[in-house]
Amino acid sequence: MNQRKTTMMQMSVDKYKDMKVLNKKFLSQKEGAELYSMGTETFRRLADEAGAVYRIGKKVLINAEVFEEYLESFRVWR
Fold first, then answer.
1. Are residues 26 and 64 in contact, defined by beta-carbon separation less than 8 angstroms?
2. Which residues contact 43 (CB under 8 A, 6 or more apart)?
3. Distances in whole angstroms, Cα of residue 45 to Cα of each of 15, 16, 40, 54
């Protein structure tokens, strides 16, 4: 397989993964931090403040809808 075809296939896989994350109701800390372009600690702190954190055993999930609403409260221009 040539380099260009491999790169295009990887881009398709990455795009699919990105779309999959965008459509999830619950995100991991790592997914959320990447999606919102912030560090994991900042994302976790904001998610805690928003009341969007769910702890199931050792797993921590963040409700994306609740987090989005909270994030909108920081909007500067309306």
1. yes
2. 29, 32, 33, 36, 62
3. 28, 28, 9, 13
Element (H, E) at 21: helix 3-22
C-alpha 67/C-alpha 72 separation (Å) is 9
The pTM for the full model equals 0.69
Give mean pLDDT in consecutive 10-residue pieces for the chain, a chain of 78 residues: 52 52 84 92 96 96 94 84
Report d(CA 1, CA 54) in Å as an integer: 44
